[in-house]
Design a protein that fits this description.
mainly alpha; 4 helices; 77% helix
């Protein structure tokens, strides 16, 4: 899978935003309103910068090379939104803690997906120079 530099940068920014969200979720006293705002920003970034690639960057007849990851990230982001909503509504400390843990685990998954997309790009970049060294 080979990503353009722009798409790679978008995934790196998404990964950084998810890591920031993860730090927010990991706090002992989570500011639930701030968490919801941060989540919305991440969701908007994903929708605007990654899901809507430049028309010239991707062929409309072909899905992007990272399509399976896009699908999973999209699904996990929606589920994270549910976790954040339920965390905001939680009245009991035990319920809030369970929702906070679920959100943290989901963020780990999302960060892993971003890392997998970026890692595949790095592996493709490493393989390309080696191929150029082979001469007939």
């Amino acid at each position: 899978m080979i990503l353009s530099e722009d798409r790679r940068q978008c995934y790196e920014e998404l990964e950084q935003a998810l890591e920031q969200l993860q730090r927010t979720v990991a706090q002992d006293k989570v500011d639930r309103a701030a968490l919801a705002i941060e989540y919305k920003k991440v969701q908007q970034f994903f929708g605007n910068q990654i899901m809507r690639a430049d028309s010239g960057e991707l062929d409309a007849s072909e899905p992007p090379p990272e399509q399976s990851y896009l699908t999973e990230i999209h699904k996990q982001l929606r589920l994270l939104g549910t976790d954040v909503t339920f965390l905001q509504a939680a009245k009991q400390p035990a319920t809030a803690e369970a929702r906070q843990t679920a959100a943290a685990e989901r963020l780990n998954t999302l960060i892993g997906y971003c890392g997998a997309v970026l890692q595949k790009k790095s592996a493709a970049e490493r393989a390309r120079p080696d191929a150029e060294l082979i001469t007939e």
